[in-house]
Amino acid sequence: MSNGPIKLLLPELEAEVVSEALELYLRARPAPLDHRYEYRYRAAHAVLEVLQRTLPEEDDPLPGRRRQPIED
Amino acid sequence: MTILSLFPTRVYTAKLQASGWEALNTRLLHECEQYRADDVAGRAWSKERYPGGYTSYGSLNRMHTLSPTFATLGKKLQRHVLSFARTLEYDLEGRDLSLTDCWINMMPRGVTHSLHLHPLSTISGTYYVRTPKGVPGLKLEDPRLDRYMAAPPRTAAAKPDNQPWVTMPVAAGTVLLFESWLRHEVPPNPVQTERVSISFNFNWF
Predict the structure, then answer these.
(1) Quick one: which of B178, B183, B182 has its CA closest to B87?
(2) What is the pLDDT of residue A65?
(3) HSE (side-chain half, CA atoms, 13 Å) at B59
(4) Which of B12, B56, B150, B188 could form a disulfide with B112 if both were Cys (CB 3.0 to 4.6 A apart)?
């Protein structure tokens, strides 16, 4: 499964809140303290990358322009 | 007629211990103030991310590994977290729920902590160190809020179970736990005295 559908499943506010929380968490804790935790870090980085790629900039006049069309 | 309540959002609250928490809080408060004075990086982080207040979230976020006093708190929290996990009927498969993050929050008058959640964690919570009269509680948001769409608002007198937001009162010596996906915030502190708390994450390994 590609990462694309992740954004489509999340309303915009949800995506912003999750993105903000993930970014803060990963910035404060750049590496897992326990190797058993590493897979969650990799997943978190992947989700954050997708969210940041698709979220509009705050001053973006056309917030939807970079989004991919939704295909059922 | 039968009406079921499914998919509950559980929140755990309890006194950390029956007695003696005041002495622990005195030590914790003293250390919080000392760490704030010493933590240059944390003050810089807070200036940007926690305006007017101090949090060690971005700098000293494993306080239980730095301070024996915080380590003591961590051990006491473990019992509550395991109790909560039993209530949630987690199948931990013999693996640990471990304290991974533990940080200080100090909120003078006017400081707020906006809506957020705790990613990469299983159970999160806060222990309250100083809660002067009039300080805000912890406001919790219904995790399904974004899906309501056409749902009518609830009456002002609706039971907490039916409210989209519930504010939990907070009190010094009390621990409050919730599952880490639950969004929450602290409204602005309206009183002069600082609200001081210690937040934490437990992870399933």
Answers:
(1) B178
(2) 44
(3) 20
(4) B188
The DSSP-derived string for A14-57 is HHHHHHHHHHHHHHHS-S-SSGGGHHHHHHHHHHHHHHHHHSPP
Judged by CB atoms closer than 8 Å, whether chains meet at A28 and B58 is answered as yes
- The DSSP call for residue B35 is H
Q: If pLDDT is split at 50, 70 and 90, which confidence band does B19 have?
A: very high
Q: In this structure, are residues B131 and B106 in contact, taking their beta carbons and an 8 Å threshold?
A: no
- Helix axis angle for B68-88 and B21-38, nearest 10°, is 120
Mutate to test the interface with A, among B45, B46, B102, B120 (most CBs of A within 10 A): B120
Task: Tell me the nearest-neighbour CA distance from B149 into chain A, angstroms.
Answer: 11
